[in-house]
Specification:
single chain; about 60 residues; mainly alpha; 1 helix
């Protein structure tokens, strides 16, 4: 029979693996989007945090 500690350790590892897979998948999607934008020369692009990068346009006196 499986020990309770071993069972909870397996569940924790599975949960961690799922979170890592999800994070990697989202990162890959973001990087592909950035690569497509760069290739197309599209503006505006996204910052590292996913927010819109508006550049310096419209910022007077900065």
């Amino acid at each position: 029979m499986i020990d309770e500690n071993e069972k909870s350790a397996r569940q924790a590892k599975t949960s961690r693996d799922d979170r890592l897979k999800s994070a990697l998948r989202e990162n890959l999607k973001r990087r592909k989007l950035q690569a497509r934008e760069r290739a197309a020369g599209a503006e505006p692009s996204l910052n590292d945090d996913g927010s819109l990068n508006e550049g310096t346009a419209g910022k007077a006196g900065t």
